[in-house]
Automatic annotation (TrEMBL):
Residues 34-128 form the CMP/dCMP-type deaminase domain. GO terms for biological process: nucleobase-containing compound metabolic process. It comes from the Eukaryota. GO terms for molecular function: catalytic activity. This is CMP/dCMP-type deaminase domain-containing protein. It comes from Xylaria hypoxylon. SUPFAM superfamilies: Cytidine deaminase-like.
């Protein structure tokens, strides 16, 4: 069965993603940050109907690998019904949706660990509210960028014919994107990308309305960030090395 065209109306998609963050992810993350976890959350929605099936938040006080996205994937593959709630229409775990029929939502642009986790699990898309630069500049968490730059970014080996030219010019590593946002495995889009799609398909004013809505939901993270930063300075016990 072909997947439904879940993104034909970027307004409906953005509305569901923002509501999932506000109503489902943030309540979990509020509890998580008060016990010393980072504020990164994730959810998996059905492409059909855009219903949240699985919702998770970071739990790295237990293990440094339990990022919001990885926690969400683990839960998706172990939960006993879909959605993971008291919904009367839920399906048993034997009818777990195919990842290809799901939308993956990350509150923050996924790190290298989570990019791999999403890819290996077979999700063909993800959407994120905050970019890597937001994580670094607004939340004082620079490691997404630093790990991609230090571990994965290898300078290109120039062909021998243009070696001298390339050496003379120098390679501008900083101009290269940190990963392929469109590739064989997935397409990654930020909420700002969806707002741009709304502007292309509808009127500019419509897009501005959604940009305001994105700003409003982003602002809900201010208090969560303060709580997390306080836990770092007060030395809450965490398994995470990079805080
Ligand atoms: Zn991650």
């Amino acid at each position: 069965m072909a997947s439904p065209v879940y993104d034909s109306d970027p307004r409906a998609l953005l509305k569901s993603l923002l509501a999932t963050i506000e109503d489902e992810v943030i309540p979990l993350t509020s509890k998580g940050v008060s016990s010393g976890n980072k504020l990164f959350g994730a959810a998996i929605l059905s492409k059909a109907g855009l219903v949240p099936l699985t919702v998770s938040t970071n739990n790295e006080t237990v293990s440094p690998l339990l990022h919001g996205e990885i926690n969400c994937i683990q839960r998706f593959f172990s939960q006993t019904s879909f959605p993971d709630s008291s919904d009367a229409n839920k399906l048993p775990s034997s009818q777990r949706p195919n990842p290809r029929d799901c939308v993956f939502l990350a509150t923050h642009e996924p790190c290298s660990l989570c990019l791999s986790g999403i890819t290996w699990s077979g999700f063909d898309n993800f959407f994120y509210l905050f970019t890597y630069e937001d994580s670094r500049d607004l939340f004082s968490i620079p490691y997404d960028i630093e790990i991609l730059q230090e571990v994965f970014r290898v300078p290109a080996v120039p062909a021998s014919s243009d070696l001298e030219k390339r050496e003379a010019e120098g390679e501008d590593l900083d101009a290269r994107p940190l990963y392929n946002r469109r590739n064989k495995f997935f397409t990654a889009r930020s909420f700002e990308d969806l707002a741009r799609e709304i502007a292309e398909k509808h009127e500019e004013g419509e897009s501005e309305k959604w940009k305001d809505e994105i700003r409003r939901v982003k602002a809900l993270y201010n208090g969560l960030s303060d709580t997390y930063q306080k836990s770092k300075t007060s030395g809450v016990d965490s398994a995470s090395f990079w805080k």
